[in-house]
Design goal:
CATH superfamily of the largest domain: Threonyl-trna Synthetase, Chain A, domain 2
Distance between the termini: 94 Å
Bound molecules: zinc ion
Structural class: alpha+beta
Largest sheet: 6 strands, antiparallel, barrel
Number of helices: 9
Order of helices and strands: EHEEEEEEEHEEHEHEEEEHHEHEEHEEH
Oligomer: single chain
Strand order of the largest sheet: 2-3-7-6-5-8
Amino acid sequence: MATERLYQKDVYLREADLTVTEVREYKGKMQVACESTIFFPEGGGQLCDLGTLGGVAISDVKEDKETGTVWHTVADASGFEPGRTVKAVLDWQRRFDHMQMHCGEHILSGRFHELFGVENHGFHMGEDYMTIDMLAKDGSPITDEQILQAELAANEVIWRNVPVVTTWFDTAEEALSMPVRKEIKFGEDISVVTVGSVDAPLDCCACCGTHPSTTGQVGLVTVLKAENYKGMTRMTIKAGRPAFEEARTRSKIASQLAQKYSCEVITLLDREAANDAKNDEVRRELSELKSALSKQEEEKLREALPKAEGSLAVFRYPLMSADDLQSMARKAEDIFTKPSALFSEKDKTVVLATPGTPAAGQLVKDYAGMYGGKGGGSKTLARAIFSKKADAELFMDLIEKHLR
Ligand SMILES: [Zn+2]
């Protein structure tokens, strides 16, 4: 039996006494249907209402499209039986969020259409945000400037506080007598939502969702993000309370950053640019210092290597990274007349350089694994990376013994 939708007559109805008509178990869940309902079932891109029925929490509300029955899913249906009257209480904050968001989307899409001939080709509504997929008639990309203009124009429609009126039609043909912005795809029981007057609407489109009676109640609509999506522009938008909460969160983050940098929110980007410039300078200085250090160490190595004893010349570096050691070794390749180990203590990595015989890469391959090391390289230059300094020392001892 088709359920009477009380929210269509009065979208502000938060409570009602409903008469139970059917109780069923469906796909493992208990569901209750009543003669009428105040709960909007999921549909038209809008999430379902929640609340309580007979004091029991509702976890889902869905419509059976064939029969028109609205089914309320409850955890425990033992208190329900046909004929019994139960009190329905709507989760009003959730519903009003949805009303604000849905209506905000209509107003914004209407402005994009009016100002730039941009059409809405897809709509998704999450718990507290929405996305719309927008495409200009000639396929040209939507610019940031157009987004700013449409967003401002949409908020101006909100500030004018014009009526939002829903009109029902039996067939699509009848509904098409309205100046709808989008074609109507379904056949019967069409609801058309008009923003402003029907003669000169600020938006008009078919929608089965719930909307406030005036645009002022939407409060605010914002475009948070725009990105390319399958050749269209996908915009993430928020309206009403979710838009306000988003603004508050962003404002708080901006204030905290401004406090951290001892500046005003408005000058944050300038401060950020100044920081970037400073970082670039520090990076340049660091690179110069590293290159000077590397040159010094290379000179020391040239002097020390011929005097080194044992079959493996070991040099320890507490500060230099494995990358720096490897690039130094590559530049000074000619000096490694005997197998040498340059040990980056901070990276726990041994850079092995040889004249080619024995092959450095092969030594790493053969012996690093014994102490949990990884790595490899060419005949003359290789690296072995360890998780403990002691393992790297054991590895160098072993190579020394092997080469004796
Ligand atoms: Zn709507």
